Amino acid sequence: MFDAVRNNKKIVQVFLLLITLPFAFWGVDSYVRNMSGGDELATVGGSSIAQAEFQQALREQQERMQTALGANFNPAMMETLEARRAVLENLVNQRLLALDLARKHVTVSDQRVRDTIASIPAFQDNGQFSLPRYEALLKAQGMTQAVFEARLRQDLALQQLIGVVAEGVLVSRKSAEGVYSVQQEERQVSEVRLGSANYAGSVKLPEDAERKFYEANRKRFELPAQVRAEYVALNRDELASQLALSDADLRKEYDAHPERFRQGEERRASHILIQADKAVGEATLKVAREKAEGLLKQVKANPGDFAKLAKDNSQDPGSAAKGGDLGYFPRGAMVKPFEEAVFALDKEGDLSGVVQSDFGFHIIRLTGVKTEKARAFDEVKSEIAAELKRTEAAKKFAELMDGFSNTVYEQADSLKPAAEKFKLQIRTTDWIARDGKMAPPFDNPKLAAALFADDSVKNKRNTEAVDVGGGTMVAARVLEFKPASVRPFEEVRADIAKVLVSEEAGKLAEEDGAAKLAKLVKGESLELVWNAPHGLLRGTQDLPPDAVRAVFRAPVDKLPSYVGAKLPGAGYAIFRIEKVTRPTVGEGDPRLDALRQQYARVLAEQDFSAYVAALRKRYDVKINTAALEPAKEKQ
């Protein structure tokens, strides 16, 4: 709900992103008052951050990460001491800002709160603020108007406070040019690689080297505990697939909700885009607009050349190659100025003027219109069936959950009763390692922990029924168990030898490379086979980062210049720098304006960090690290 608020200023937005957890959740009063209940994790200026507050923040951060990472999210990420400490540090920073807000008596007028609420798209209907929509959305969030408006007022107050820091950042053109020149500097280099494999034949290991390595690194050769198990899964989607619906049921749903099956008007358009962020300087916007107006004149003079002009001039990488074609789209799919221009055109072939959006300047041609129509029953029948099945399956799943849990618990020596009662298939796993990356559904931490629990391993009892997400409950039972062990020395001896030889060969390559480099630096001539010169930029991915840094740290007052770098696991490389090129930028170059904004954000972040650091000195901050540790780490 606060996105519209936070997008007002780019630099202010950066600061708000730094405060990962939503500042306005509890309110200033709850920040400043002492919440001590004997379980505080930290105190800030005499006020406490209690376990309840921390756990709430931890849950919210976990939900955000799950939304961002999707299937790649692992709840165990949030159970490390580092992750928990980061969440607490964010809470501390929020408390510090809240205390400073109260100290400085920062206020926000009622009119600004009203204007902000009215401008939030979620509360609008056809572009206008809708009180019923506003009330309905707040009710859905379990929030009263008074609470929401108080929290929004606090968020706006925080913006004011941070804005003071942000608006003090100025970046001169000369500074930006210097940074741009360094960032885009290109160095022409040749290189010689001394691969460690070429030195492997010179390595002679002591007789007991492998044994010593094995004894010193036994943990590297540990095999984690493993189980082979069987399991049953009560799945909502499988329940849906078992349901049968008649055409009469589907027709009844279709007739009851005709509005749901109306297909709104869609339009097809092509465009030519000249990119220009609204935040860049006026001079840059003027240049971009003039270019767009020039192209518009060409299109009007020769409408048949639109596709060619789009291919040659449009700066939209997604559509330029297709002559600017964007395909069909409904209302709400495009940014508002673009959409309004497209739907204001009368017929196919009509041309807009120059339209400005957040992306730049557009020239738009209407190429197709699909009028609003009701979708036929046969067309939507499968959609209706799928929706009704999902709804019924969700109800049935909720009804069966308790019975499923009770059955696997009460009939703990076998999964067969649960499988028969709920018509489920008993599946069998391969060997599962306790510390390995488990395949679904055992990638769920709670189910994995239950599978390796003492009662499951020793007594071969069913695990509890675990909700693994996605409308699925799983219960498992261990069939076989292998305790953790260490691989025998003879089994790993050859692998250890390879590792040791590779390490020693790498050292020999490094020593030889350093000796050769020293001679080159002195001006001595060496018979080396250099590869062809190639350009190297700071962000290149072709070399290890340490090697790139070495090349760009090398002095270039006299060329050629030589520098060397280790190549992890591959040996050593010597680089010969032959030429240095630094770009120049002209007046109005959009790249320079973009860099100035980026540089300003970096400086603003530094200023903000310094501001928070100063608050930490003003208000005494104490953190109870022992209480912060996850339960398993305190055992």
How would you sum up this structure, described in words?
This protein has 24 helices and 22 strands. The protein has about 625 residues and is of the alpha+beta class. The chain folds into four domains: about 5-170 and about 610-635, Triger factor/SurA peptide-binding fold (Orthogonal Bundle), CATH 1.10.4030; about 185-220 and about 490-580, no CATH class; about 225-245 and about 380-485, Chitinase A, domain 3; about 265-370, Chitinase A, domain 3 (Roll), CATH 3.10.50. The strands form seven sheets. Strands 7, 14, 15, 16 and 17 form a five-stranded antiparallel beta sheet that branches. The protein has a four-stranded antiparallel beta sheet with strand order 19-5-21-20, with helices on both faces. The protein has a four-stranded antiparallel beta sheet with strand order 10-9-12-11, sandwiched between helices. A hairpin with a 2-residue loop joins strand 11 and strand 12 (about 360-370). The chain starts with a helix and ends with a helix.
What's the helical proportion of residues?
A: 40-55%
Q: Over all CA atoms, what is the radius of gyration?
A: 33 Å
CATH class of the largest domain: Mainly Alpha
> If classified by CATH, what would the architecture of the largest domain be?
Orthogonal Bundle
Which outline best applies? Answer: globular
Query: What gap, in angstroms, lies between the N and C termini?
Result: 41 Å
By CATH, the topology of the largest domain is Triger factor/SurA peptide-binding fold
Task: Please give the count of helices.
Answer: 24
Give me the count of strands. 22
Structural category = alpha+beta
Residue windows where pLDDT falls under 50 for at least 5 positions? 1-37
What composes the largest sheet? 5 strands, antiparallel
Query: How large a portion of the residues is in β-strands, by DSSP E?
Result: 15-25%
How many structural domains can be distinguished in the coordinates?
4
Integer average pLDDT: 84
